[in-house]
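Thread: "does anyone have the structure for this chain?"

Original post by V.I.:
We have the sequence but no experimental structure in hand. Need at least a predicted one for the grant figures.
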Amino acid sequence: MSWNKSEAISYARIHAHHKSGGYCARAVAAAIRAGGVKIEGANGRDFWQSLERAGFSKVYGTPIEGDIAVIDALPMPNQYGHACIYDGAGVWYSDFKQNSLYPGPIYRKMQPKITIYRHY
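Reply from O.Q.:
Generated one for you, tokens below.
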């Protein structure tokens, strides 16, 4: 089955909670599977490996519909980073509907590295 980013985004949108439950990579992996790509889940910190094995490639520039962002972990104990999928209309989804690309105020303040992945 080929990549259907619209199905993936629809899944992410329907299953998004109002706040994070701490399972961003699981939620994004489920959305990717709903879009027709086989992917193994991981935590946010290691999710880039799962994306690359599933055929996603690192890209640069402005995100487009279906892109996945992997955000480095914060420099604190028990941090795992973050993963989210872009709807192409300004909203990022993980296990919740985010207010911005960074999932919360500490991320927005510290601004860890973001890597964008795309499936062609």
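V.I.: this helps a lot. Residues 91 and 99 are 7 Å apart (CA to CA).
O.Q.: and The radius of gyration is 13 Å.
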